[in-house]
């Protein structure tokens, strides 16, 4: 059985703390959002703690932010991933009463767009759902059509000695590589110029995150995202344009990536985008 997956890339912050004004159960206060500048915060909701490995979970960080509210022990906040019309959205709730996120409050310094919210204060509700797709997701809407799976490549060199003998040197293991792609994609899913929401296209993911060398995750099954399972963390292994018109149907597009298994986020010289 084939399933549809996702390409997900992280957010990064350039400051260590931000403020979000929020109302929990009728009392408004400033909540503190903390981040490690340069760390990868994945928008997946898998409860991954902010650790020295260079990974964090964006939704967990937002929940921890709301937990700094003085009334958080009474009105326990929760942040989770949900799907609305097939699109990933952030959902914030509390154990009782109403929650309001005051994005337009002058004291709020946290960018709402990072979480799929607009700049306006959310109406009081038991559950608040972001009106827009969670950034950092590309959804092809189709299973992989090509996949080499992980392949280890030998890292060796050969030279011929003056005696004519062939000398082989083993330089140690290299990161495993994987080539994969999708075919018969609608142009609006691939090219920014063809989409009403350019940030949701593969081209946006490629230009803003993947091509600069940032890590990304390949999930083959959307059902396993929130569980933190079924993904590989990769980086591109080629700067060649991976987008092209489909060979059989010119009105369709294909995406084919050459990748290698990524190291820690601290090994990647990425660009701060938040």
Brief digest:
The protein is mainly β and 274 residues long. The protein has three helices and 18 strands.
Write the layout of secondary structure elements.
Elements lengths: L5 E3 L8 E8 L2 E8 L5 E3 L12 E3 H9 L10 E8 L2 E8 L4 E3 L25 E3 L7 E2 L7 E2 L8 E5 L5 E5 L6 E10 H4 L11 H9 L5 E4 L11 E6 L6 E3 L6 E10 L13
Parallel strand pairs: 4-5
Antiparallel strand pairs: 1-10, 1-15, 2-3, 2-8, 6-7, 7-9, 11-14, 12-13, 14-18, 15-16, 16-18, 17-18
Notes on the protein architecture:
With 274 residues, the protein is mainly β. Helix content is 8%, strand content 34%. The chain has 3 helices and 18 strands. The chain has helices at residues 58-66, 187-190, 202-210, and strands spanning 6-8, 17-24, 27-34, 40-42, 55-57, 77-84, 87-94, 99-101, 127-129, 137-138, 146-147, 156-160, 166-170, 177-186, 216-219, 231-236, 243-245, 252-261. Strands 1, 10, 11, 14, 15, 16, 17 and 18 form an 8-stranded antiparallel sheet that branches. The longest helix is centred in the first third of the chain and has 9 residues, at 58-66.
